[in-house]
Write a structure and sequence with these properties.
The chain contains seven helices and five strands; from the N terminus they run ααααβββαβαβα. By secondary structure, the protein is α/β, with parallel strands linked by helices.
């Protein structure tokens, strides 16, 4: 530090805007070595994501009591998610999937459906891709279970494909 101040005071660096006072101030703020400061800084573990429920306004509930849902699976940074959306109200729910097995997808579906039912909605129909065909009997066997409408094997549900891009953005 002493040598650096001597270089600054002696005008050894031509047209240098830094003064010896600037160097002292930086030394007080950062210490001897910035690399040491950065090396001692550690990242802390982030807080876990908590479930967030939103109270549905009574007017919306009265207008859209019967709900038509669409669902699909999407990937973000190699992590898979289960996404459901109601058509008229655009009420969107996302669940993380550990894997793409039938029990895991059904668990995510059931959790989101339970959330809809607790809010006061009645699910009448679910529109999904052909990959959900093994889930059809499970979903329709739920008490008051919705009718499952499967897209052709070569088709996707266009609304969900667009909504996945919205969610990703």
């Amino acid at each position: 530090m002493k040598d650096f101040k001597w270089v600054l005071c002696g005008d050894q660096i031509k047209d240098c805007p830094i003064t010896a006072q600037d160097a002292e101030t930086a030394f007080k703020i950062w210490g001897k070595n910035i690399a040491v400061l950065k090396g001692k800084t550690t990242c802390s573990k982030p807080n876990p994501v908590m479930k967030d429920s939103v109270k549905v306004p009574a007017k919306l509930l009265n207008l859209h009591k019967e709900v038509f849902l669409t669902a699909d699976i999407f990937f973000m940074n190699k992590t898979q998610f289960f996404l459901m959306m109601s058509w008229k109200s655009c009420f969107t729910a996302v669940n993380h999937l550990m894997n793409r097995t039938v029990p895991e997808i059904f668990k995510a579906f059931k959790e989101i459906c339970t959330c809809h039912l607790h809010c006061g909605f009645h699910i009448t129909e679910v529109h999904v891709d052909g990959e959900f065909e093994p889930l059809k009997p499970l979903i329709e066997s739920l008490p008051g279970g919705p009718m499952v409408n499967l897209a052709s094997s070569s088709e996707h549900v266009p609304e969900m494909e667009q909504w996945i891009w919205v969610v990703k953005e």
